[in-house]
From TrEMBL:
Listed name of the protein: Shugoshin C-terminal domain-containing protein
Main location: nucleus
Native organism: Oreochromis aureus
Gene3D superfamilies for this protein: Single helix bin
GO BP terms, alphabetized: cell division; chromosome segregation; meiotic sister chromatid cohesion
Assigned protein family: Belongs to the shugoshin family.
Record key words, sorted: Cell cycle, Cell division, Centromere, Chromosome, Chromosome partition, Coiled coil
A Gene Ontology term for the protein's cellular component: kinetochore
Cellular localization per UniProt: Chromosome, Centromere
């Protein structure tokens, strides 16, 4: 039979190997848990990143659409301004024509004062054109 020393050594070796096996299994189990956890976390992060990219793309498209609307409205506003300026110049031109017709109806003495008035209007015309 085995001696007491041999049995104790064998028992100690057996306990050590059992403890080592338990630690190894625990490490493997913990490691696989972390792997699964990291895999799940990475998948969630990838989905979140994809959703964020999609949202960013939608926002960029919306900004471009709004910028096009702003450009169109600025163009329309400029056209309205030019149309109003054309109407104003037409009104001024008609007023000057009618004043000339009125001046022709009056005598020469009155015509001189009307010519002075027309020159004044002509100076205003220069101001309106530049304004």
């Amino acid at each position: 039979m085995f001696s007491l020393k041999t049995m104790m050594a064998s028992k100690a070796t057996k306990q050590t190997s059992t403890a080592a096996s338990k630690i190894k299994n625990k490490l493997l189990n913990t490691s696989s848990f972390f792997k699964v956890s990291l895999k799940t976390n990475n998948k969630a992060l990838a989905l979140a990143l994809q959703a964020q990219r999609k949202r960013s793309s939608q926002l960029e498209m919306e900004v471009m659409h709004l910028q096009k609307q702003v450009d169109a409205l600025c163009f329309e506003l400029h056209l309205v301004f030019l149309l109003q300026l054309l109407i104003l110049n037409n009104f001024r031109s008609n007023a000057l024509q009618h004043l000339d017709m009125v001046a022709d109806l009056f005598s020469d003495s009155v015509r001189i004062s009307l010519n002075t008035y027309l020159q004044f209007l002509w100076h205003i015309d220069i101001f309106v054109t530049f304004w």
